[in-house]
Amino acid sequence: MNILPQKLKKGDQVAIISTARKVNAIDLAPAIAVLKKWELTPVIGSSIGLTENQFAGSDKERAKDLQQQLNNPEIKAIWCAKGGYGSVRILDLVDFSALQQAPKWIIGYSDVTALHAHLHLQGIASLHAQMCIDVETKSKASRETLKDILFGEKPHYNFPYAAFNKIGTAKGTLIGGNLSVLYSLCGSNSAVNTKGKILFLEDLDEYLYHIDRMMQNLKRNGMLENLAGLIVGGMTDMNDNTIPFGKTATEIILSSISEYSFPVAFNFPAGHIWDNQALILGTEATLKVTSKQSRLTYC
Question: Where is the active site (predicted)?
Fold first, then answer.
């Protein structure tokens, strides 16, 4: 199990940065209001407002902002403002060793999966959760699970049974995130070790044959055969060609794991969906899938 950051307390500072796409400070007003409501102190990073094409400044500028927040002992959590693409470009420009002595939450999802995967290999837990942008438009549970975890609580998740589920119980370290990003990390020094772990997957706006290509890649890399369990969140706004691929995203995933016996739970409330609940990546969890519901709990 990875090192778990300490719980926050009222007044603690939370840095808002962008490791990927550019974002204007004015667009962060709702997220700032959320932090203040929780009696936390928002700190706006130097990457906010910067522009280099689609990015929040150059790779060096984004890496510098992340490094400053990692090294600053007054910053107790780092909240990524926006996804898109770009986090992977700064991984090798940042020294994450400060987290070994003073771990702090790094919060985000989608493109931030690159950070989650990199941190997991260094033994640091992180928080797969809604980013700053659009936080006010998501479900109450999206915000409350984020708040609960930051303040030291571990939520439990009950979600409805899905017809494609595979019944069973699994225990292991929870890892994962965005399928496209995990796929892009294969073969690198940030690729996750999935053996004996519970893998969470979600994705957005991909062609169905891309989903199949990525799942086949994970399978051929040996990332599926030794899983303890699989959780699938939102597979949102999938695309198809004029000649249909012939399977839904759910069916593609199922066909990729058909020979394995670990439990599988679909329709978990996380991903590019309205109900994007927070998950602690890098901590031990138990997944129980029954004919009535699925339940995820932290150990």
Answer: 110 (nucleophile), 202 (charge relay system), 272 (charge relay system)
Last residue of a domain, one of 128, 150, 172: 150
**Final residue in a domain of this structure, among 150, 168, 201:** 150
Q: Is 126 a catalytic residue?
A: no
What is d(CA 163, CA 298) in angstroms, rounded to the nearest whole number?
Answer: 25
**Residue of 47, 110, 126, 180 marked catalytic:** 110
- Look up 110 and say whether it is catalytic: yes
pLDDT digits (tens, 9 = 90+) for 24-44: 999 999 999 999 999 999 999
CATH of the domain at 183: 3.50.30.60
pLDDT digit string (tens) for 100-114? 999 999 999 999 999
Give whole-number Cα distances, 234 to 203, 264, 276, 283, in Å. Answer: 6, 14, 9, 21
Q: What pTM did the predictor assign?
A: 0.97
Residue 188, token pair as written in the block: 């690198």
